[in-house]
Amino acid sequence: MDRTSHGRKATVSARTSSLRCFFEGCEATTALMARLEEEDESLTMGSKAEVGEDEQWGRGKLTMQVSEETVHQISTDPWYQVGFVLTTGINSSYVLGYSGSIMVPLGWIGGTIGLLLAAAFSLYANSLVAHLHEVGGRRQIRYRDLAGYIYGRKMYYLTWALQYVNLFMINTGYIILAGQAVKAIYVLYSDEGVLKLPYCIGIAGFVCALFAFGIPHLSALRLWLGFSTFFSLVYIVIGFLLSLRNGINSPARDYGIPTSNNGIFSTVGAIASLVFAYNTGMLPEIQATIREPAVKNMDKALWFQFTIGGLPLYAVTFMGYWAYGSSTSTYLLNSVQGPVWVKTAANVASFLQTVIALHIFASPMYEFLDTKFGRDGNPFALQNILFRVAVRGGYLTINTLVSALFPFLGDFMSLTGALSTFPLTFVLANHMYLKVKKNKLSDTQKAWHWLNVVGFGGLALAAAIAAVRLIITDSKTYHLFADL
């Protein structure tokens, strides 16, 4: 038995209960959930001999080990803590950019329908991945472990590469956001222009590194998740109220979709941003921390994320676009007008929440490095602290440098959605479900999943081309280390 199995065994839960309880009136979501329920049969877990001597039948349940060893904590967190981890991701400072990056290119109709459909499809796809967490008699605690079990070692490494790109790009965006918050605070109090955006990004990267040194693993964020929620509410409520006040006192706004040479590319990029808004690309890693029964508890966490957790995102996104129309900034706090101290509070909250949220999306890389180099034992032992300073500091230094070189936040959101969020969340999730279920699906069900694989694969390709085109265009407009 490996070192992570002590006190970390989980049981195979009953498959999901009804997945319609919250979105009763949402036809798109109900239809998608109906398909999942229709296909909801017990996964093939293998015989007792196949899963090993340490996994024994008792009272109709199968106890399982994790897929591979890890020095981070497994099966320790309640479902609501995991729900707050997921909510922290979707309500991070990125929400301050959706009015400009999603609503402006798509307009009221396209943006609203797009956000709702993206939520429905994302919930469905994430539910598929959550229900593949316990296969082969083991808890697959990493996305690459799950892909490797189903497809083999080559897919293991390809999935790890896609996930690494996804998380690196997300972290790049977070550091850009934090730098923009620092720059916005500076501009509120000085018009000398001495503190440029690249310097602000450097400050943000340094603070993120300090935080990473002190938080050894994802489960250790317990108290910080409360602070994160508070900070999120601060900048979301301020952004909402100032936008409301500005919108009431402003003349009629233009809500027309801007026309330019990059019109079609902006639209496709906005679709990629829709997908990016709801998905982490690291669901198995987050699910690994949840207490048993892992699947049942993950269902609760996902419903929390896509119902209560999504309300702040909708509120600030729609209000920002209503107040400023097609001129909305990709960082909403640059558009709002109000008392200096209020805007300062919002930007400080945005900065601090970003520091916490970045740690969530960097944790798979931290877990890989900590496990590979054997950083077990007391996480606050001097050797382990020095290890984190050297390794995590180096990782975030590279991330900060890329952020300063290309501070085009909206473009990075589109590229991240195209290169990794689409493949990991939609393409791979549906195909893995097909592989695991094998002959248990009807022809109609197989066709549905293949439609998802092909359709989202095509969207991923189109979105990648559009995002690269937008980055090239912006790179011509703005030089490297631009002070936006």
From TrEMBL:
Q: Which residues form the Amino acid transporter transmembrane domain?
A: 78-468
**Where is it mostly found?**
membrane
Task: Quote the InterPro entries the UniProt record gives.
Answer: AA_transpt_TM
Entry's localization field: Membrane
By its UniProt entry, which Pfam families does this protein fall under?
Aa_trans (PF01490)
* Keyword Membrane part of the UniProt annotation: yes
What keywords appear on the UniProt entry? Amino-acid transport, Membrane, Transmembrane, Transmembrane helix, Transport
One Gene Ontology CC term in the entry: membrane
The record lists the membrane-crossing segments as 79-96, 108-134, 155-176, 196-216, 223-244, 264-281, 302-324, 344-364, 385-406, 412-429, 450-472
An individual GO BP term? amino acid transport
Q: Which PANTHER family match?
A: OS05G0424000 PROTEIN-RELATED
- Protein name per the record: Amino acid transporter transmembrane domain-containing protein
- Organism per entry: Vanilla planifolia
